[in-house]
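# step 3/5: fold
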Amino acid sequence: IADICGVARSTVSYWIAAKSLTARRFGRKHMVSVKDLVPFLEAAGHPIPQPLLEKTEGVYHRGFKPFKHCWDYWARDGREECCKKCPVFLHSLKECFTAGCAAEQRCRADCSECSYFEEHYAPLMAFIHQIKNPAAIYKDLFIWSGNKAWADLCGVDTKSLIGAGAEEFIHPESLKNIINYDKKIRMDNSSEVLHLDLIFTTVNNKKIKTDLSISPLKKPEGTWLVVVERQYEP
């Protein structure tokens, strides 16, 4: 598995020890089925190696799709004329779901029900739902995805998190800090796990102080994984 996927043997051992990757023990060895490995890699955001695709007898006939702009994707259904009127197309925005919080700046589609988002972004971020603590993936202070625990912390449903801006959930006392912190980690291009104290504000204006860990992700490129390690009332 390590050779095929291009990772260290210790990484594979961690996947198995953490029970993220299903394995069966035979003596001193672990055996992993391709039918278990491929969905795991998809959920964890790893590209599916071609040898695995060739040996699954067509059960998993696709790897991750190369990037395609949303308007190119919808052109297959003859919607290009509609897309050409969309602010996402007019501003050549790569991530359509982070086009802006104002309704007039965004695509009219519901991201949580959009097949483009489901095919090109959701598989790379599915692993987040395996994390028990509140966790989210973000870039440039826009949330790309969050698990149920994160949604509960913010007082919304999970689909409302897609494309939401940090200012919707971060208390004004912490907003300037997270903006400055985001600039710093992008300029430093750090690969280390970082830590930050942040205050959330709920829908009923209740303040919740949190201790966060923030780590960079290889995929989706340029994104960060943030996990709440501890939360309490200030």
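# step 4/5: annotate
The two ends are 46 Å apart (CA to CA).
# step 5/5: archive (pending)
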